[in-house]
Amino acid sequence: MNNFFHTKIEFLKGVGPQRAELMQKELNIYTYGDLIQHYPFRYLDRTQFYKVAELDESMPYVQVRGRVRGKEVLGEGRKQRLAATLVDEDGNEMELVWFKGVKWMQKTLKNHTDYIVFGKPTSFNGKWNMAHPELEELGEEKQTASFLQPVYHTTEKLKAFRVESKVIARMMEVLLKVAAPNIHETLSPELIDHYRLMNKRDALINIHFPQSVEKYNAAKFRLKFEEFFYIQLRLLRQKTVRRADLAGQVFRQVPTVTEFYKNHMTFDLTNAQKRVIKEIHKDLTAGKQMNRLLQGDVGSGKTIVAFITMLIAADNGAQSVLMAPTEILADQHYTGLKAFADRLGINIGKLTGSSKTKDRKVLHEQLRSGEMKMIVGTHALLEDVVQFQNLGLCIVDEQHRFGVEQRSKLWRKNPRIIPHVLVMTATPIPRTLAMTLYGDLDVSVIDEMPAGRKEIVTVHRFDSHRLKVFQFVRDQIKLGRQVYIVYPLIEESEGMDYKDLTDGYESIRRAFPEYQVSMVHGKLKAQDKDYEMQRFVKNETQIMVATTVIEVGVNVPNASVMIIESAERFGLSQLHQLRGRVGRGAEQSYCILMTGYKLSKDSKTRLETMVRTNNGFEIADIDLKLRGPGDLMGTQQSGVLDLLIADLAKDAPILQEARAAAQRVLNEDPQLEQPQNQNIVRHIKSLSVNTVNWSRIS
Length: 698
Ligand code: ADP
Ligand code: MG
What we know:
Radius of gyration: 31 Å
Bound molecules: adenosine-5'-diphosphate, magnesium ion
């Protein structure tokens, strides 16, 4: 236990109880350890000096050297300000202005004295000025002044109590001085050597107060590396533990699979599907429990892979479950799988919240006796009454909708031997993220679409072209197709959005009196939602006006047009998911992104990306870069994304190295018993068991 870093920050010189309490509330900084890991989010370059003639409004913060000539207080009351003139060595002038602390500045600012001023230059009526610059008298520059000046995240409330970035920097200086002797190396000498890493103490000092560009870069690399290293070490250890401890049923027989391939397949599997099935098959015959994530873009054909996996289980006397997050999805999976199962004479059932008591009884019975081989359903499957003769395989679709606990409830339904697990997700997760989030899972990817699939044509249209878009919709419906029109409703409770939706619905009904229009949104009761969905599925309605509730998995092959209203308000991944609702049939499909003229730069990038590509992985990568990982679907609960310094979007190469390093360490010393790994062991021990991010100091 490294007690020094547990010291409460109120004991640090210059902090005190009041600021300490505020820093806890506002920044979650409780201890020395928290404070030292409050890394700067950017730096100001104070090595460059500019002359007034060189200034340019696009410059962020700059330093100018010059002499103060004249200062006066102007204006009255709230408009009062102090203005001073700074003259540089060429004789060019710049005005310095203070609106706050006028009296104080008036007193301390020395006339006819040389200063270095530091701030954001702006030009007004051809005159340069700088508001509230930082000042240093020339010749008095701090000798310790670091090369790059750290800027720390703070909040308005903290600023009101004068805890500005500069004040935090001062606290940091004080802290680093007392902390230095207590900072111990947390990586092994072998790793430090092999990856040429900066030591921990220097890294912490240089991340706050870089002594040179080289040292800053080395510090940054070291800390990012460490952060990734400990996450990967934890994940890889979990994986090894699982591998070593958990036996799995061995599924060697495949007679029905062979028969299915030979006589009942209506299409050829894509190479990607074949590869994934091979990977799964290998797991199922290895004698260890499978724990695999199957990623595949919408429409890539995950269902057939799921079915074949279930078939392998059935061939070996084991039962399997396919769990979906919603009733609609469970229905669709059931319908799809039943068509295959029927041809093979396999007993398959469905269990959802709306299954009738009478039917449930039969299902429960057949599952317990082992008569029923496959079951598709929702949460209802998790109930305790649902018991199996021999549950051998659990497949979970759209996994981010289920919590870890819910899922483990399913695994426990075989008390003798944990079932094999296949998690399917249509949310393409960039590799870097998958590695971090699912580092303890094996990952399979279907990265190829079935042949003959027509690319969805995506266009961006402005609201002013709505009439043309409506005409297009009319033409498509005349051809027998159906149309989705989606409105943003991010928070289901936002009144405004709801109004947009209902207004939209009314205007669509008015524009298309000759057709039937459905409306589905999150405020509807589940059964009403289902009822409307079913009407659309049966083509009783031609237009579906909806919110993002239709986002996940819904399959209506006859729907060939997706119109997304206020498309600028959707995230990229979400747009892609929505687009995936069309393009499921043989017909050419279209996605139309509607927006007004006013668009931010990011919105433009999102729209352009959608128009340019259908590739889910490319889109996920761009999305990650635009938004950062925190917002990506499925990642909110993970905790591992609570990174201090590393950036999943930008630091993929470091992540890869750190993962390789963690793997090397574990290969050579699985139990971390060797002397060279004791730094690592000590560090892990010093952290609370609940800490997900092992690189944290605590
Ligand atoms: P998703 O991965 O989104 O769940 P599905 O499994 O629903 O995709 O497959 C989408 C459609 O593609 C289904 O109608 C399915 O029958 C069809 N399909 C799947 N694999 C192939 C293939 N190899 N060749 C042709 N069609 C396929
Ligand atoms: Mg699917």
